[in-house]
Write a structure and sequence with these properties.
Blueprint: E1 15-19, H1 22-25, H2 66-79, E2 84-88, H3 91-94, H4 105-120, E3 124-130, H5 136-142, H6 149-165, E4 171-175, H7 185-189, H8 200-224, E5 229-236, E6 239-241, H9 246-268, H10 273-281, H11 290-296, E7 302-307, E8 311-313, H12 347-361, E9 365-369, E10 379-381, E11 384-386, H13 390-408, E12 413-419, E13 439-441, E14 453-455, H14 457-467
Parallel strand pairs: 1-2, 1-12, 2-3, 3-4, 4-5, 5-7, 6-8, 7-9, 9-12
Antiparallel strand pairs: 10-11, 13-14
Helix pairs in contact: 2-4, 6-8, 8-11, 12-13, 13-14
The chain binds 6-O-phosphono-beta-D-glucopyranose (BG6).
Length: about 475
């Protein structure tokens, strides 16, 4: 039985906004001293093999020219009433190769202007230090996070950001969807060696380096400014047993453990027993120093996560069908509808994750990604070009209603940032036609289009939800 909340608004001070990542919208991928990141050799998206170097023939679809248009784009976000805006900083704008000693001033100056504009528009900046955009040089020369030296490069990069932007940015995320490295080691870990050639030990050694780096900059941040709030960022995906058979229930838990491990280490400061058992049984031997163990004790201030879908799990080998969109394992849930990209639609799953994470870690939470990727059609209504995206409005409403219930359940939630409030290039497939935005961008997957911006119907809906602090969610949708 489910209970309905009586609260009609969100708590005072709840942050509503949107989230983007540098490589998915900035464009200008070689401007002002920037060098390529791993994204620039993933023209088909992060789940496909890379090309060797970016060339004019295999260029990835460049973002939406946010690099040059951020002021007018942020004005649109402000019009919706955003009180928080999540960006990422492109590492390869600040340290173009990744291993330099001195940062690139032009890159820093760009983010100075961007952060100033976010603040001037009345929004709290929430900054991801590394969002799937490791400098290409680090990937090709060091094999990314497999090399322990990455910890030092990342520390230098993070310190540069803290010192330069710390007067305006207090909320930081260390690595976007850190657990995605298990399925997408290049995108999430800058690892050039193909996934199928990586041993479990090599993969977990790279993960260990990222975890140490995350804890180390958490420590650094706290020493530099006690006001800094540092969060980890996890790809959440609740796993339901396909049946009540305890074997299925355990299989669901086993898959959840693969993801929980990242939060457990970030929040508890040590490796959980179930992961150590897996290491023993699979002969995984890691280079973990005493100093690493000490550093890991620097736990995060809050847990942030993305939520798009849930999956199911079964112990029955005959039923192991992987769903289209579920990169982290699990089988499709027959009770749920799916998006055009095969992602299960499950607002209740968000309430479940919120309760689960809060009960497990007892840390404040932040939903830093949630959204619907869909094909949109630009039409004219009363002489104005727009998209009648009732499906996106439904998605937003149902998920925010679930969030409101979770807050009533007692979850301490700081905010909610919709993924891609302006259409951006998809991380998984590199398509622009997989649109999440409340603002439509006239750009096609082949790069054609005027880059004009148009407000979709959902733009005004989110504006009303924010203006009413959630009360508008109760209105009937016409
Ligand atoms: C998350 C990423 O995986 O999901 C984002 O943090 C990404 O970068 C988002 O864009 C949606 O995924 P996709 O593949 O539809 O872009």
């Amino acid at each position: 039985m489910t209970t309905q909340s009586t609260a009609r608004t969100f708590p005072d001070g709840f942050l509503f906004g949107g989230a983007v990542a540098a490589n998915q919208l900035e464009g200008a991928y070689l401007e002002d001293g920037k060098l390529p990141s791993i994204q620039d050799v993933l023209p088909k998206g992060g789940l496909q093999p890379p090309t060797d170097e970016p060339t004019p023939d295999n260029l990835k679809l460049e973002g939406i020219d946010f690099y040059h248009r951020f002021e007018s784009d942020l004005a649109l976000m402000a019009e919706m009433g955003f009180s928080v805006f999540r960006i990422s900083i492109a590492w390869s704008r600040i340290f173009p190769r990744g291993d330099e000693e001195t940062p690139n001033e032009a890159g820093l100056a760009y983010y100075d202007r961007l952060i100033d504009a976010i603040v001037a528009n009345g929004m709290t900046p929430l900054v991801t230090i590394s969002h799937y955009e490791t400098p290409l040089h680090l990937a090709k020369t060091y094999d990314g996070w497999r090399d322990r030296r990455l910890i030092g490069f990342y520390e230098r990069y993070a310190r540069t950001l803290f010192e330069r932007f710390g007067d305006r940015v207090k909320h930081w995320l260390t690595f976007n969807e850190i657990n995605a490295i298990t399925m997408a080691p290049l995108m999430a870990g800058g690892i050039w060696t193909p996934r199928e050639e990586l041993s479990t030990s090599q993969l977990y050694q790279a993960i260990h380096h990222e975890l140490v780096a995350s804890a180390s900059v958490t420590k650094m941040a706290h020493e530099l400014d006690p006001e800094f709030k540092i969060g980890c960022m996890i790809l959440s995906m609740p796993v339901y047993p396909l049946s009540p058979d305890p074997a299925d229930v355990w299989e669901a838990k086993r898959i959840e453990h693969e993801n929980y491990a990242f939060g457990d280490i970030h929040c508890r400061g040590e490796y959980p027993g179930y992961l150590l058992r897996m290491f023993r049984e699979e002969g995984v031997e890691l280079d973990i120093t005493d100093s690493d163990r000490e550093i890991l004790k620097n736990t995060v201030d809050f847990v942030s996560f993305s939520y798009y879908m849930s999956v199911a799990a079964t112990a029955d080998p005959a039923k192991q069908i992987r769903g289209e969109g579920n990169v982290l394992g699990g089988v499709p849930n027959p009770t749920l509808e799916k998006t055009e990209w095969g992602w299960a639609l499950d607002p209740m799953g968000l309430r479940i994750v919120l309760n689960d994470y809060y009960e497990r870690w007892g840390k404040p939470l932040f939903i830093v990604e949630n959204g619907l990727g869909a094909k949109d059609e630009l039409v004219e209504v009363d002489g104005v070009k727009t998209v009648v995206d009732d499906y996106r409005i439904d998605y937003l409403r149902n998920h925010l209603l679930a969030v409101r219930e979770a807050i009533e359940d007692g979850v301490d939630l700081w905010g909610y940032t919709w993924w891609g409030p302006i259409d951006v290039v998809s991380a998984g497939t590199a398509q622009l036609s997989k649109r999440y935005g409340f603002v439509y961008i006239d750009r096609n997957d082949d790069g054609s289009g005027s880059l004009e911006r148009y407000k979709k119907k959902s733009f005004d809906y989110y504006r009303r939800v924010i203006a009413s602090n959630g009360a508008a969610l109760d209105e009937e949708l016409s």
